[in-house]
Write a sequence for this structure.
């Protein structure tokens, strides 16, 4: 049951909507009436994610296929304009980050402590289910109060804007186990790969090697703590890394091949990048004979609270990941920019 829209919230406002392949529109949409457990958040920043780009360029992100126009966006921060009517969640005026995960069935079983693996899981701006789960690239977003995380004192909305992808990176590093004193290889220096570098630095990795097809993202990686880079087209150079832990962040079969080649015998490969749907080639014989551990890493669970605390105390330094901030009215230009890895890293929309 919903209530009427509060008087200080507009009936409609700007949102970024994908209608199909290469059909992205900034349009006016109604602001939904909040349910008793919902808050109205005035969005400040939203990060353009790889999944947002995939919906725009391919009409799908992995197994999630776009079947109707959908508001994009799950990497968002803002200020609570209207608190939840049932008294749950942060008060009006609180600056918050948004944990974009939800569920269609709270009773659905999942491995203990790993709600990200629930078969009933939902995510803002996702076409995994139909009707789709609308995202939060809008000036005013109606969101469950339970998804809002108040920012620690001293943490700005601008800095907190990377909290969601940083939580993905934090989860991936945790999947590798204790990385202190180890040699790490990060394959793919897109925003997630760059944030993996930042988390590895905080976690005490002794050496952080990065690999990419472009020099610019590897230069940004060095700003964040990488010790050196190896061009992705140099398989011998990658094999010579012999890393204890490898993070595949490119989401490509070639990147996975590089990750396997770059791992030391008995090493661990964490697969963070989402490969295209369907069967993919892989160097499994090499993984077998080297006794590599291949581990998946999907989104995150409760890591956002740790990320926000680390961003606030300065132990996680991630500002260099953001390369551009673009006004929402120029969302199409922002998406074009985010698609060009030679010119950008994380692109933020400013609402």
């Amino acid at each position: 049951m919903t209530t009427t829209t509060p008087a200080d919230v507009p009936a409609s406002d700007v949102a970024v909507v994908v209608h199909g392949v290469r059909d992205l529109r900034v349009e006016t949409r109604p602001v939904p009436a909040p349910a008793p457990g919902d808050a109205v958040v005035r969005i400040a920043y939203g990060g353009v994610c790889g999944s947002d780009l995939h919906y725009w360029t391919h009409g799908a992100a992995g197994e999630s296929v776009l079947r109707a126009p959908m508001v994009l966006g799950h990497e968002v921060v803002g200020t609570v304009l209207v608190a939840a009517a049932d008294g749950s969640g942060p008060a009006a005026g609180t600056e918050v980050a948004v944990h974009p995960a939800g569920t269609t069935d709270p009773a659905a079983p999942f491995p203990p402590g790993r709600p990200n693996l629930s078969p009933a899981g939902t995510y803002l701006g996702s076409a995994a289910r139909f009707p789709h789960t609308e995202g939060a690239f809008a000036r005013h977003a109606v969101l469950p109060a339970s998804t809002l995380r108040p920012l620690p004192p001293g943490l700005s909305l601008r800095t907190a804007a990377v909290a969601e992808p940083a939580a993905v990176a934090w989860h991936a590093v945790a999947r590798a186990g204790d990385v202190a004193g180890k040699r790490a290889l990060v394959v793919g220096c897109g925003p997630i790969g760059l944030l993996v570098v930042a988390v590895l630095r905080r976690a005490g990795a002794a050496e952080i090697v990065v690999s990419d097809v472009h020099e610019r993202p590897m230069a940004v990686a060095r700003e964040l703590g990488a010790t050196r880079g190896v061009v992705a087209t140099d398989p011998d150079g990658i094999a010579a890394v012999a890393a204890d832990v490898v993070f595949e962040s490119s989401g490509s079969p070639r990147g996975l091949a590089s990750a396997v080649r770059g791992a030391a015998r008995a090493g661990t490969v964490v697969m963070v990048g989402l490969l295209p749907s369907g069967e993919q080639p892989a160097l499994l014989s090499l993984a077998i004979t080297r006794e590599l551990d291949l581990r998946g890493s999907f989104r995150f669970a409760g890591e956002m609270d740790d990320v926000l605390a680390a961003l606030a105390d300065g132990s996680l330094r991630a500002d260099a990941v953001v390369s551009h901030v673009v006004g929402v009215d120029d969302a199409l230009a922002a998406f074009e920019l985010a698609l060009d890895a030679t010119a950008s890293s994380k692109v933020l929309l400013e609402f």
Notes: The chain has a mean pLDDT of 95. Residues 163-175 form the longest helix (13 residues).
